[in-house]
Amino acid sequence: MYLCALFGCIDLNLITLILSIAILFGLTDFLTERYPRLQRDIYYIAFGVIAFLFIIKYYYGPDIWNYARFYAWVGSPAEVLAHPENIPFHYESGFALFCSVLKQWGLSFYWMTVVQTLLYLGVIGFVFSKIARKRSFALALLVVLDFNLIYIEYRQCLAVAAFLMMVLCMDSKKYLWTLLFAFLAISFHKSGVIAVVPTVLYYQISNRHTKASLFQVILILLVLMFVLPVAKVSTAFLQHLPIPESVLASVEHHVLLGKQVQIIFVLYVTLLLCLVHYVQYSKSKVQTIAAAAIIGLLLIAVFYQYYYLLNRLRSYFTPLIIVFLFRQVQEAEDKQVHVPYGAFAKQLACVIGLVYMLHTTYALHRSTQSMKHKVCETCTVFDLIDHRPVDVQKSQMRKAELWWIEDFMKDETNRIH
């Protein structure tokens, strides 16, 4: 009843329900600060509940229009390897091979989405194990910032999982596994190149100390992006590189669709200010996760206006940035490092993060309610109790097809002129 009153409706769709539950679990961290074991147990429950809600989705979201048809088309692994040029939708060969293996094992499209979701969430569990406290709040931040990745972006979700495993392997100095996961990240989604290459290069200076001036430079760069024509410069540069036309078209599509100001600008400014504040008073080495987080902040600062490309890029680094920020603050607290106005800065960051999560959830709920074809309307495996699978699939596929035609394309910002 509380959630119904909060959003002014009776029926929350599946995705806004997940976000609301994640936020409520996140708030419990501030009520259990004196009870670390209880806080840890609540995090495990929160992780399990959120994972369960993500994996019960059935033919959910607009992207099933392409992914379900692709899964029906894909042949045996031998066929995919023999004729990679015939892969439809310009999908990457790594994802095609992943689907073909699961299909050969007898798994349906739904079970492929379950495997993909569990792989991603399993890696997130490993990454978040490096946070000592307030993991439920960290999980809420991740779910709200990256819900789109988890519930509809199947290829990139696998690429992000592989990238995070690459960072963890670098941290453990397992370089053969690092190369393997780097290759997987790129083969699952083209955007993996933009995340993998600079992270591996920056890792070479991982024995240096983090300096507050580094984050000040990133903050200044973020502000400068108001006036610099990044889209025109980057697309002109890419046209002179020997890269496939499909890759070039994809990058240009994501870069050319932009907004001058996004609400996340305030969030990133606050994040960078807090990092400057804490790093200035504590000497922290740029270890593997820190190095990857810094590269992520740099890329976000450069491309924050271009929200389609930003959503691609920040998904790789959001979990690492969250871990890095939480560890910076918690290590300063544990060492009792005196930071002027440190408590105020932390509280301000938490309040801004909470307001952002609530605003995002509310805005998402309003936008999904206004859709002509409600592709986010709840559809789970439990709907198969009263309906035949084929009927549910046809209904969801038809809804997704019409959404792309009538909902997505009616927005002028989604068109390239």
Question: How would you describe this protein?
Answer:
The protein is mostly helical and 417 residues long. The chain is 70% helix and 0% strand. The chain has helices at residues 2-7, 14-27, 36-55, 64-73, 77-82, 93-104, 109-128, 135-151, 154-171, 175-188, 192-202, 212-224, 230-238, 245-256, 264-279, 288-303, 307-334, 342-369, 389-408. The radius of gyration is 21 Å and the shape is globular. The model is unreliable at 1-10 (pLDDT under 50).
Query: What class would the helix/strand composition place it in?
Result: mainly alpha
Mean pLDDT: 85
Task: Kindly state the number of beta strands.
Answer: 0
Overall helicity: 55-70%
What is the ordering of alpha helices and beta strands?
HHHHHHHHHHHHHHHHHHH
Element layout with pairings:
Elements: H1 2-7, H2 14-27, H3 36-55, H4 64-73, H5 77-82, H6 93-104, H7 109-128, H8 135-151, H9 154-171, H10 175-188, H11 192-202, H12 212-224, H13 230-238, H14 245-256, H15 264-279, H16 288-303, H17 307-334, H18 342-369, H19 389-408
Helix pairs in contact: 2-3, 2-8, 2-18, 3-7, 3-8, 6-10, 7-9, 8-17, 8-18, 9-10, 9-11, 9-17, 11-16, 12-15, 12-16, 13-14, 14-17, 15-17, 15-18, 16-17
Short description:
The protein is built from 19 helices and no strands. It is mostly helical and 417 residues long. The N and C termini lie far apart (46 Å).
